[in-house]
Specification:
By secondary structure, the protein is of the alpha/beta class. The chain is built from nine helices and 14 strands. The chain starts with 11 loop residues before the first strand and ends with a strand. Bound molecules: S-adenosylmethionine (SAM).
Length: 343
């Protein structure tokens, strides 16, 4: 008699992403590990089942993923009247303790409708975990319950040191009323996501110099001025009056592709709307020539072959930079944001 074939236990990497970028998110993880991706367009996440073992991936290594979870269970057809019992049974079977627990929907319209449920269910789950003594401040992982729909949950863990420290992988930033444009949130988020706290403190200090290409009306410049940097703002468009009055901004109405600094600057930031390859080439020139030490810039992605274009542009930057970090931020739309520092 043939022996029963045991079903391997469920394991997957669950990657949260911007809805519409599931394909790029899947392409990226497939380039790092071998496995099968389940990527439904518009779902806001990718499920990746690895073959030949399971390895955790630090979320910082991924451009298109806002969060990376090690999922160990996927429960569907959850009864509306009691979702907690099967979830607690799965957690009991898994036999781990957790430092915290987050219940999250995807960043989609359906997910927004699920947000109130996730909030109240999160409170109920925390209560049940405490009662079952499964919460432990000394534990090494955080529990995630990801609900793509109200009757289905993925349960997984993340190491707080290797995962995004915000529910849904989204830092909730407040728009500062004095800032001249909403774009300000992109640079604010970039500095928060792409740099560590120590790097922010060391690399953005009063008196440092910066150039902002495509600066008008001044949202990015505002973030630099807020940190007391001196900024040369390059744009043919008008800059915000209050920013100019700060005494820290020099506005030059000239072409960002032609402008050259008289002396090297600490920072180059660039938010010009241009073909990504042209921007990558320009930034590579600034880094290669030593005109700036560090940079944050945006790559506006094309409609097609977005992953391939991203890789091509980043390869150009890597050729001249020692440290390149890229992310599709929550405040990015059809674009990604990159940090690099000179080799
Ligand atoms: C997305 S907006 C920048 C918004 C700005 N970062 C902010 O936070 O307010 C793009 C800007 O790039 C400028 N721009 C586009 N091409 C440029 C070029 N070749 N040289 C200088 N500025 C350029 C446009 O005039 C526009 O103001």
């Amino acid at each position: 008699m043939a022996g029963a074939i045991a079903t391997p236990p469920y394991r997957s990497l669950l990657l949260y992403c911007r809805p519409g970028f599931e394909t790029e998110c899947a392409q990226e993880i497939a380039a790092l590990a071998s496995g099968d991706a389940n990527a439904t367009r518009g779902s806001g996440f990718v499920e990746f089942r690895q073959v030949g073992g399971h390895e955790t991936v630090d979320w910082r290594r991924l451009i298109f993923a806002r969060q990376c979870i090690d999922a160990f269970a996927c429960l569907d057809a959850l009864p509306r009247s009691d979702r907690l019992t099967p979830i607690m049974a799965a957690l009991g079977a898994h036999g781990q303790r957790y430092v915290d627990a987050w219940v999250e929907p995807p960043d989609t319209d359906e997910g927004k409708a699920l947000a109130p449920f996730c909030k109240s269910f999160g409170n109920a789950l925390i209560g049940a975990l405490k009662k079952a003594r499964l919460l432990d401040p000394a534990a090494r992982t955080r529990l995630h319950g990801f609900f793509p729909q109200s009757d289905k949950v993925y349960l997984g863990t993340a190491d707080p040191a290797a995962s995004a420290p915000w529910p849904q992988g989204i830092p909730r930033l407040k728009f500062p009323r004095e800032a001249p444009s909403r774009s300000t949130l992109k640079l604010d988020e970039a500095l928060l996501v792409l740099l560590s706290e120590t790097e922010r403190a060391r690399w953005l200090t009063a008196g440092m110099s910066a150039v902002d290409l495509g600066a008008a009306p001044g949202g990015w410049t505002w973030q630099l001025v807020r940190r007391s940097l001196r900024v040369t703002a390059i744009d043919n468009g008008p800059m915000d009056r209050a920013l100019l009055d700060s005494g820290l901004v020099t506005h030059l109405r000239t072409d960002g592709f032609r402008y050259r600094p008289k002396k090297p600057v600490d920072w180059l930031v660039c938010d010009m709307v241009e073909q990504p390859r042209r921007i990558a080439e320009l930034i590579a020139q600034w880094l290669g020539e030593g005109w700036c030490r560090r940079t944050v810039f945006n790559l506006k992605l094309p409609m097609k072959k977005r992953y391939e274009e991203t890789q091509l542009c980043l390869a150009r930057i890597r050729a001249v930079a020692q440290d390149v970090r890229a992310k599709q931020l929550y405040h990015d739309r059809e674009e990604i944001t990159v940090f690099a520092q000179r080799a």
